[in-house]
Amino acid sequence: MPPSAPPIVDALRACVGERQVSTTPPDRVAYARDLWPRSQLDRLAGEAPQRPAAVVWPADAAQVAEVVALCRQHRVPIVPFGAGSGVCGGTLPIHGGVVLDLKRLKAVRQLRPADGIVEVEAGCVGERLERWLNRQGLSLGHFPSSILCSTVGGWVATRSAGQCSSRYGKIEDMVVDLEVVGGDGVVRRTPRADAGGVDWNAIYVGSEGTLGVITAATLRVQRLPTAQAFRGWRVPNIEAGVEIMRRAMQAGLRPSVLRLYDPLDTLMVGSDGDRKAAKGPLHSLKQGLLGKGGSGRGLRWALGHPRLSNGAVRLIPPGCLLLAVSEGSAAEARATDDAIAAIARGVQAEDLGEGPARAWLAHRYAVSFKQSRIYAAGAFVDTFEVATTWGEVRGLYDAVKAAVGRHVLVMAHFSHAYPGGCSIYFTFAGAGPTPQVMRARYDAAWQAGLDTAVTRGAAIAHHHGVGLSRGRHMGAAHGEAQRWFGALKATLDPDGILNPGKVFSEAPP
Amino acid sequence: MSWRLVHDPALGECHRAPSGARCVAPLDGVALAETLVGVAGRLRSRVGQPVADETEPGEIWIDLTAFSGVGPVDPVGQIVRAGGGATWGAIEARLQVDGLTLGPVPGWLWDQPVAHTLDGGRRARPSPACGELLDLVMAIQAVLPGGGLTRSAVSPRRATGPDLARGVVGAEGRAGVVLGVHVQAWPLAGQVGYRATRFGGWAEALAAGQAVLRAGARPQWWRFAPAPTGEVVLTARFGDLAGLDHCLARYDEAAGGRPDDPGAAEALDAACYGPGAIRRVAPTPRWVGAPSAAVGQAEATADAEVWDLRPEGVTVCGAGAPPAAQASGWEALAAAAFAALEPAR
Amino acid sequence: MTSPLGAHRAALDTCVFCPKLCRFACPVAEAEARETVTPWGLMTLIDDVVRGTRPLDAEAAAVWAHCTGCGRCTAVCHHANPVYEVLTAARAAAAAQGVAPPEALAWATAAPAQSAHLDALPSGGAVQLYAGAADDAAIGEALALLRAAGYVGLSRPTAPLPAGWARGAEVGEPVPWSTAAFAGAEQIICLHAADVLALRAHPRDPGAGARAVHLIEALDGRLPSPRRLAVAGDVAYLDPCRLARGLSVTEAPRRLLAAVVGGQVHEAVMAGAEGGCCGAGGGYAAVDPEAAAWVAREAMQDLPAVPVVSAEPACAAQLATGISGATGPVWRLTTLLASALAGEGP
Ligand SMILES: Cc1cc2nc3c(=O)[nH]c(=O)nc-3n(C[C@H](O)[C@H](O)[C@H](O)COP(=O)(O)OP(=O)(O)OC[C@H]3O[C@@H](n4cnc5c(N)ncnc54)[C@H](O)[C@@H]3O)c2cc1C
Ligand code: SF4
Ligand code: SF4
């Protein structure tokens, strides 16, 4: 924050209340990092991140507008903050300034079941909203793995995807309209997504706090499904699994989950009873990655030698696990399940029954608890999700795996299936003798992955957003379309105070 | 107005329409980019000459005839690449060669170039089974005012900032000219089935429509329209992609109402969709809003028709203009953003 | 600050790198909307102190006061990290350093409210009532109900104790007390689950073999049929966190309540063993009464505007601080039970 910090802090306090502005070190430290694994590595390296000068907790959209107007007047950067579960560094206050925590805006403003919508404020934590909707017999149908620790505003701001996106769509498919505060400090409501003309929702969704502060969203809701059908399949190889997914989606089926694990990820998931789980070193690696290892030395060694580890992975049998969950009315769930089964049998898939998919549903958020163990063991883990068309899926998978695999151990699953293609969700883990080496390997893995995705014409992010981690590849990915971003930024945030440096790291001023 | 009309024969012909609008017919992407360098004004993507009574002073018509190619088709991804000047009809015809389809293409869209539809940004072909036509567009490549070329991953979804891939949609040509698109297609249905059902009134009919959607029976198109008897008739077409028999059974169970002669739906299908279709357009203006308000809108409109019914939104054709609130302030912001795109002179 | 906290290294490590997965469950984090007081934030601050990257000072200790000890984080954490336990160790370190918030110590050592009902009891009998921070009215109700339930020879501890002697441990302050106070007891009936838990956890057996139970457990299944309904319409029931999660007593209060309510008993979205927190525990309300009232308000926000019932006096009192236009009055369960038995309205 510039030297004018004290006057603006006083003014902020006058606006939102004394205790809703903090400049204390504990608060500034707590808001200096999010779930970007690189921040975690910085912590392992003992490096202190850039802190905001102040944290502000507005109570409503009017206060957000006042805060933005004040910051604009003083040219103070603002970083909107949901729950800080973003994994790309989107909330890092790289230019200092004010972090604007939106979680006090958490009311459900209106629920209109007959119109299939709920209007909810941006700071509402996802799990709380979903539980509340369930109580009314409804669901948002949006289940990101971070539902326990992320907000509606964060979802909208990052173009988030839930685990059931194949049926219910991503968050952008659910947005009916938004209430936003622009960089000019004005509260506006976007036209309905179906109104025609310029689609302002498509502009704000994914804008990651750079074009406006989202204060509320009207979202589509669903009635809770009355039936669910579960099925696990063991497919001979990745191609066969992708083929089932493609044919199911192109046949107009709408399963809520279609999730194919590559051989290593299949080993990790192990829901087929570990029947074919490798023994020996791979088993130890699995235990280590699942946080069940002992001291972590074996894990660090394996992750520190990615070429060897990735080579060993080739010994794993090529079979893969495919999970399918179908839901809706009883008739639709059954019909979808039957239709997928017919496709699966056509590619010699082995029916594993309900068990694996039921087990997945029961533990769907469990994996999120595991990653901290890996850091605690002195290693790192991250995920890299891209999306492409069906014809490109296999090629992209091989290319990214080869490129990233030089630096880290890598596995993937294929999920978020649409008629036009799907997402590949790579999980990679690495280690190094020092935090500095780890960071270098981490950066190299990302660089390699992003370069490959750009070269192959894939979407460089399917649902985690851009933040800082992908910013430098945005120009290559979008060409001159970044001028559209520049024009929007100049219009909606005329003084460039909203989350500067994010989305397009090299965006034109 | 400071645009510069390029009279280089290599770039194509220039015409002046009676109203004062101008038309450029660039022959390739480079020429189009060069044409747009230094041009200011509303760009109108068209195929063919400006039509006198459709032009406004100061407009520049971009004749995309040179960009009307369709193909190649990616048979695995079921995606077709098409130039901005390609018509929906041409795309559909090309897809059908490979056993693919966009789904039902209304007659009025058949001859419309893709770029023109995208410029307008209005819902063009709602279809519960096949999706809104604009949503089938997976990637858009455009030339910006000032000449830059955009890139866009061909991907079903993305999370790479705002949806810049759709930056031109609804911009009425002010954000650039669509050079080409990638469009998602569906397998061609081998079998289709029709339904016609009568309901006592709009409330009953639209509620039945929602029940049908909840049951997972998604028609390829459907239309709700009043009958002379005062009833509302729902006519619909189903395809066999997700199982025709299942779909029809779920429809029959969920819809209720009084079954009518499905021949009416078949006749409407023939009349409104496909190459030989009449260019029938549902009545305008169109009201778009929440389902609970749609019944009132439809009841208050003598010749209302509903072709677009979703759980969270309805378009009532023939009903009053959209709520004024939707326009407030945004048009000015859009204008400012488009102005910021114009190259500095 | 290493020794007691060193034992918690695994918990600290997992919390510090955790995506804050229990945040949705933490009543304090929800009410304050502040990352610093999420379980992740509290644990990270402890880790920073342990690692020496920040001092152990009043500023850190003040942050650690922002936890009610409701245990919800531990319940949803797949590592079952004992956040509150680690926090009390950190609070103890702060207390030892003399930097603990003074309000916390005052809260832990507060004298109990004067109670004529309690004073009228003999001391040192086989069944002793330990009322903790309850006021005289609540004690009167408890005694009336226990007598109606057939308890005879009720007595009180032999020596005066602080209002809630469980509190000393909660805020890390050593509060002097003695099990000798319970001499002669075979059963100790407490009005607050925190006291039951503290008695059960105490290394020395309080009063040779005495069994500590909660009043609600003591009453369940023993009360005669009510003479009339205490409430004709709907009410809502909120679980005291330590009763529901700590003692796993969730059905007994609902059974007792159902017998005296004519209408529907509404539940919070998260109820029973998942139930919330009123904001009273862990000294939080003493250190930050304003925020604790937000927690109380949050606890009631999902409920319709009907009377809210709690099974503990301290909980009911704290919930009352959160009453807003959208919430009904707050009643003690014992008030309803006693009035139904007496044939009067609450
Ligand atoms: C364990 C784990 C699992 C995950 N799983 C998924 C998953 O399955 N699917 C998925 O999509 N993501 C997932 N994520 C990523 C992350 O949860 C999402 O990006 C989420 O949408 C971020 O929400 P948040 O509220 O935490 O936002 P934050 O992290 O606080 O912010 C993210 C970005 O959005 C901006 N922002 C936040 N709120 C607003 C607002 N109200 N207005 C304007 N800008 C705002 C911020 O400035 C920042 O740029 C996961 C993350 C973790 C840690
Ligand atoms: S208690 Fe468990 S869930 Fe909560 S922050 Fe710590 S590790 Fe994460
Ligand atoms: S014990 Fe309760 S108040 Fe304390 S951190 Fe855990 S959930 Fe929050």
Characterise this structure.
The complex is a heterotrimer of chains A (509), B (345) and C (346). Chain A has 509 residues and is an alpha+beta fold. Chain A is built from 21 helices and 18 strands. Chain B has 345 residues and is of the alpha+beta class. Helix content of chain B is 25%, strand content 24%. Chain B folds into three domains: 4-65, no CATH class; 67-187, Uridine Diphospho-n-acetylenolpyruvylglucosamine Reductase, domain 3 (2-Layer Sandwich), CATH 3.30.465; 193-317, FAD-linked oxidase, cap domain/gating helix (Vanillyl-alcohol Oxidase, Chain A, domain 3, 3-Layer(aba) Sandwich). Chain C has 346 residues and is α/β, with parallel strands linked by helices. Chain C is globular and about 65 Å long. Chains A and B meet through helix 9, strand 11, helix 15, strand 16 and helix 18 of A and strand 10, helix 6 and helix 9 of B. Residues 25-28, 39, 42, 67-73, 83-84 of chain C line the site of one iron/sulfur cluster.
Question: Any key phrases for this structure?
Answer:
heterotrimer; A: 509 residues; Uridine Diphospho-n-acetylenolpyruvylglucosamine Reductase, domain 2; Vanillyl-alcohol Oxidase, Chain A, domain 3; 40% helix; globular; C: alpha/beta; four-stranded parallel β-sheet; 19 helices; 8% strand; binds iron/sulfur cluster
CATH architecture of the domain at 227-455 in chain A: 3-Layer(aba) Sandwich
Give the tally of β-strands of chain A.
18
Estimated share of beta-strand residues of chain C:
5-15%
Alpha-beta content class of chain C: alpha/beta
Strand line-up in the sheet with most strands of chain C: 2-1-3-4
Summed up:
Chain B has nine helices and 17 strands. Chain B has 345 residues and is of the alpha+beta class. Chain B starts with 12 loop residues before the first strand and ends with a helix.
List the helices and strands and how they pair.
The complex is a heterotrimer of chains A (509), B (345) and C (346).
Chain A: H1 5-16, E1 21-22, H2 25-30, H3 37-44, E2 54-56, H4 61-74, E3 78-81, E4 98-101, E5 108-112, E6 117-121, H5 126-135, E7 138-139, H6 152-158, H7 165-168, H8 171-174, E8 175-182, E9 187-189, H9 200-204, E10 212-220, E11 222-223, E12 227-235, H10 238-250, E13 257-261, H11 263-269, H12 281-289, H13 297-304, H14 306-313, E14 320-328, H15 330-346, E15 350-353, H16 355-362, H17 367-376, E16 379-389, H18 390-404, E17 409-418, E18 421-431, H19 435-455, H20 474-478, H21 481-492
Parallel strand pairs in A: 2-4, 3-4
Antiparallel strand pairs in A: 1-2, 5-6, 6-10, 7-11, 8-9, 8-10, 12-14, 12-15, 13-14, 13-17, 16-18, 17-18
Helix pairs in contact in A: 1-4, 3-19, 10-15, 18-19
Chain B: E1 13-16, E2 22-25, H1 29-36, E3 43-46, E4 60-63, E5 70-74, E6 79-83, H2 88-97, E7 100-101, H3 107-110, H4 114-120, E8 137-143, E9 177-184, E10 186-187, E11 192-199, H5 202-214, E12 221-226, E13 232-239, H6 244-255, E14 258-259, H7 263-272, E15 286-289, H8 291-299, E16 305-310, E17 313-317, H9 330-341
Parallel strand pairs in B: 2-4, 3-4
Antiparallel strand pairs in B: 1-2, 5-6, 6-9, 7-10, 8-9, 11-13, 11-14, 12-13, 15-17, 16-17
Helix pairs in contact in B: 5-6
Chain C: H1 3-6, H2 9-16, H3 27-32, H4 39-51, H5 58-64, H6 72-76, H7 83-96, H8 102-109, H9 116-119, E1 127-130, H10 136-148, E2 154-155, H11 167-171, E3 187-190, H12 193-201, E4 211-214, H13 215-219, E5 235-238, H14 241-246, H15 251-258, E6 265-267, H16 284-287, H17 289-300, E7 308-310, H18 313-320, E8 330-332, H19 333-342
Parallel strand pairs in C: 1-2, 1-3, 3-4, 5-6, 5-7, 7-8
